[in-house]
Amino acid sequence: MPAPKDAIVKPPPFTYHRPATRFEVDELLGEYGADAKLLAGGQSLVPMLNMRQMSPAHVIDLGGLVGEPSVPVWRGAESTLWFGPLVRHVAVEKSRAVLEGAPLLSKAMDMVAHPPVRSRGTFVGAIAHADPASELPAVLVLLGGQVRVRSHNGIRTLAGQELYAGPFELTIAADEWIDEVRLPPGRRSDRFAIEEFTRRDADFAVCGVAATVREVGDVLVTALAFFGVGATPRRFELSAMSSDDITGGQLDLAVRELVAARLEPHDDIHATAAFRRHLAERLAVRAVRRAATSERSTE
Amino acid sequence: MTTSFVGSSIQRREDDRLLRGEGTFVDDIAMDNTLHAAFVRSEAAHALITGIDVTRALEIDGVVAVLTYDDLAGTPLAAPLRVSQPHPAIRHARTPYPLARDEVHHVGQPIAMVVARDRYIAEDAAAVVHVDYQHLPVAVDLVGAARGEDGPAHSDMDGNVYASLSEHVGDVDAVLAKAEHVFEYDLRYERAAGTPLEGRGLLATFDELGGRMRLWDSTQAPMMVCHGLAPLLGLEPEQIEVISPDVGGGFGTKAFQLYPEEALVPWAARWLGAPLKWIEDRKEAFVGSNQLRSQVTHVKVAVDGEGHLLALDVRYLHDNGAFCQFGILVPSVTASELSGQYRIPNLRFSFDAVYTNTTQCSPYRGSGQPYATFVVERMMDWVARDLGIDRAEIRRRNFIPPQGMPYDTGLSFPHGNRSVYDSGQYPAQFETLLEAIGYDGFAAEKAAAAAEGRRIGLGLTCYVDVGGTGPYESTKVTVLPDGSVSVVAATSDTGQGHETMYSQLVADQLGVPMERVRVTTGDSRRTQYGFGTWGSRTAAVGGSSAVQAAATVATKAKAIAARLLEVDAGDLELADGAVRVKGAAHVAVPLTELVIPARFGRTSGGESSPGLTAASYWSPSAMIFSSGAHGVVVEIDPETYDLNILRYVIAHDCGKVINPMLVRGQVLGGFAHGIADAFYERRHYDNAGQLLNQNLMGYLVPFASEIPQVEVRHMESSSPVSIHGVKGAGEAGSVPVPTAIASAIEDALGFPIDAMPQSPLTLFELAQRHGR
Q1: Do A208 and A138 touch, CB atoms closer than 8 A?
Q2: Residues of B in contact with A204 (CB under 8 A)
Q3: Ramachandran region, residue A96 (left: φ > 0; alpha: ψ -120 to 50; beta: rest)
Q4: Any idea where the FAD-binding PCMH-type domain is (chain A) (predicted)?
């Protein structure tokens, strides 16, 4: 791409593609694969290019895809909440379908970046970016969502849990891409909470946790997914507890055991592994208690 | 005089232009055929350069030149840049070559300059310049470096201490030996940096025919840059036009001179015969723009049984990074304020200034003052604790009283006058603060919170803040033929609102509407002698020179009008754009009619010089000190250790106020920097000298969401030093904030906070260590 006359950004050179259909994206990825990057909202890719942290030979801009929905869609026939590749965060944040079908995601959107970023960044893009500190992959995994993966060779569906290989790394092939994310509806009786610790408002989380609490007979089944701690989001279930266990010390013990056994927190300048472990415990307890005592969201 | 603009909250004249996006910053200035520079910077903290291969860069279409040290041979740029703040205590001056010669001393040091048709190409080419390094021992940790265990940072030195300075008042040792109580404390302050929204930027063009260099420079100190460049370019200062256009923040980062880029870009523009632009990007700013200190201190203090300070002995280490172009300015500024607001009859400091393989340091908003405040005020809290005296009461017992002013601390201020406090009402100011923050009721408030499992704490600090540093500042005031007034000031505006401030001062002196005053700042085409904007000095020193120049013009105008009106000059006043007889406004002569007589009049007729114009190089005869007290109530989350500021009060005295709205802006902006310096911003280097947080995701400049509401109480102790009673306001908002927050966190958590900045992580670790 030739430099504009008054260049104020300075990514390394790349060839720019602007396909009009998903099929054309498949073809381009089939041809350039590992040398290509997809551009959707550009809130992560463009700064990385400008800082020359990556230098893809090809940038494939999804912004020109024709006929893509701009909002999440409830598909009654499949009973799923469906997100196309150009649905921006702001559309998820304001979506009534999301509020009703996946209230946890609505809560999580409040924590995603600042309004300017939410107005450009895309939901599927954040799922595919695989930032381990992002709220959205954890929500996907916790809610048992799926992604649709496609390439010039065909289309397949992956559970969110199977999508992540490591920080910023997916299990899919270089010529594959995610064109849809689907979330199943929760039960109306499910309750949710999300807690995170950030250094500044709307930063990526130093540590965070999303929780669902489901009534199964007389007991409560709690599931957790952490972010900002560990390489990939995973869904953990605690053994069933009574509501007294949850308000009492039983929950603290169960969470401590889970964090000690299953999480592998890392060190960075904002938190040591020990501090992350401490935060993971305290935030998980907060989240579960808050979920368990919250109003059922849509009743 | 009928008009009075001084003292009014007049809207900033700059805002209309700036808010509409019509400001002109360096990068907004476009010239045909401009070339663009990018720099190859050291990736090693300390290494010998064993080879530089520029072949691939030169092969790229659009690359004009790739310069390394060897290309500068035989030019003035082949020598190290000079120390712009020399001091006899410096034993080992080390400054960078504009392009590294054979040894690099910090990550980010310029090694090669690529010039190309546009910045894209320059970046592409810089990325393929290959540098071979032979790594050398690295000094990063201040204490290790000072002891000579790490490094040396410069392979031609044995250790890393480059300067040592000591000064004393009274007999510290004798008092320490026999005092009733002697306490010792250790303190530490880590490294931060100014982060102006607009990075540094340069656009240089050389007019071969006219023999003139023109440099647009996003700097706080255009006159200093002009004079600093002259020997490097082989030109007279008057042949070098340094213009600082709109500047998007400086905070001291841009008061430094000369940066290597600042020498290279104009030199190369001349050599290449084309305009050359370089705009610093954020990544470069993190490693190439100057930072501010780490310091480590040991304090010994002698007190009597009532908590009266008898003697203070302060020894500290100062980390200045890889070089000392600003000499020992920062640790010396710390030293000059070690008396705080208190009478301390016996006082001694000694410091070692140390090189490390990190980016060079120079002042950033407050310079060494936040650290002086931290040392003195944390000490006051701890002496109170150790003697079982209330921490407000111990301060009351030691304040310098108003009747003790001016107060000579016995200490020196670097490159200037003695550290003598000119005026201040410390006790009254402190009582105002205590009342506003609710000090008396706080014990009950804290107990009530504790009963709910909440940890809250109250922090207190007092401070002094030097403003009005010399040597002088220059302003030229001229009544133009159309009766409008031109003000040319050597200082440079970086967002403060100087255009508004100078207009207010001069309009009052000359009796003209503010709209008739046009202000030019930071342009060496218009004035040659002067310094720039830093150290809270512009309103006090630049403002005094503006008042003095305008008053001289007024005197001249009256003298001429007196002849024309055949009245005594003493009966005249300036108002409504005219000189008129007091009490008989119809007997008047407009300023426009005085311009020609002033130009043609004989200079022996009572006027010292022709024209309705005067320049002033006003020089403060003594130091000017603002003062204040901050109080804060914080809550610390017992699980995440996050900080929540429940209320914050600033009692503030910056002397006479020219424009309350501008002062409030300065205080609140400084306050935000203080919050940053207390809990968010910190440069993290690893042991290899790599900066771990090289972007704004890792280096936590607080958002608006992190800055709490603050209540500001003003006091006004007019300065006897400045002409108009004004003191400095630019830095005072930031100086005491980390100390107040430290005091409050300590009160909330119950263990000592002796290092800043803190973070949830450091508080978690401290709590573990203290078994909480």
Answers
A1: yes
A2: 697
A3: alpha
A4: 9-188
Q: Which of B118, B639, B697 sits opposite A3 (nearest CB)?
A: B118
Comparing B413 with B684, the larger pLDDT belongs to B684
B118 touches chain A (CB under 8 A): yes
CA angle A285, A288, A293 (to 5 degrees): 120
B721: which 2 tokens? 């030093």
Fold of B295-469+622-769: Aldehyde Oxidoreductase; domain 4 (3.30.365)
Amino acid at B109: Q
ipTM: 0.94
Contact assessment for residue B327 and residue B83, using Cβ atoms and an 8 Å cutoff: yes
What are the tens digits of pLDDT across the range B576-586?
999 999 999 99
Are B706 and A200 in contact by the 8 Å Cβ rule? The answer is yes
Q: What is the bridge-based pairing of β-strands B346-354 and B276-279?
A: unpaired
Note whether B15-22+470-618 and B295-469+622-769 share their fold: yes
How many residues are listed for chain B in this entry?
772
Q: Is residue B226 over pLDDT 70?
A: yes
**pLDDT for res B610:** 87
Residue B365 has pLDDT above 70, yes or no: yes
Would you say A23 and A62 are in contact if contact means Cβ atoms under 8 Å apart? Answer: no
- Torsion over CA: B113, B117, B118, B121 (sign): negative
For residues A130 and A117, give the distance between their C-alpha atoms in angstroms, rounded to a whole number.
17
* CATH code given to domain B31-136+200-247+254-288: 3.90.1170.50
**Nearest Cβ partner of B120 from A3, A275, A286?**
A3
Partners of B640 in the β-ladder: none
Q: Which site among A52, A275, A279 would you substitute to test the B interface, given the most B Cβ atoms closer than 10 Å to its Cβ?
A: A275
Angstroms from A175 CA to nearest CA on chain B: 27
> Would you call A199 and B121 a contact, using CB atoms and an 8 Å cutoff?
no
CB contact at 8 A, A38 and A124: no
* pLDDT tops 80 at residue B401: yes
> How far is A130 from B66, CA to CA, in rounded Å?
39
Give the separation between CA A222 and CA A215, rounded to whole angstroms: 9
Distance CA B120, CA B128 (A): 13
What burial class does residue B432 get, using C-beta atoms within 10 Å of its C-beta: 0-12 exposed, 13-18 middle, 19+ buried?
buried
CA-closest candidate to residue B365, choices B46, B13, B115, B670: B670
Could you tell me if B484 lies within 8 Å of chain A, comparing CB atoms? no
Segment (H or E) for A272: none
Of A13, A275, A283, which is closest to B761 when you measure between CB atoms? Answer: A275
**Residue B147 near residue B101 (C-beta atoms within 8 A):** no
| Inter-chain residue contact B693 with A199, CB threshold 8 Å | no
**Cβ within 8 Å, pair B761-A52:** no
The greatest distance separating any two alpha carbons of chain A, rounded to the nearest whole angstrom, comes to: 69
| Class in CATH terms, A73-183 | alpha beta
* CATH for B15-22+470-618 (3.30.365.10, 3.40.630.30, 3.40.50.2300, 3.40.190.10): 3.30.365.10
Given a cut of 60, whether residue A2 has pLDDT beyond it is no
CATH superfamily of A191-293: CO dehydrogenase flavoprotein, C-terminal domain (3.30.390.50)
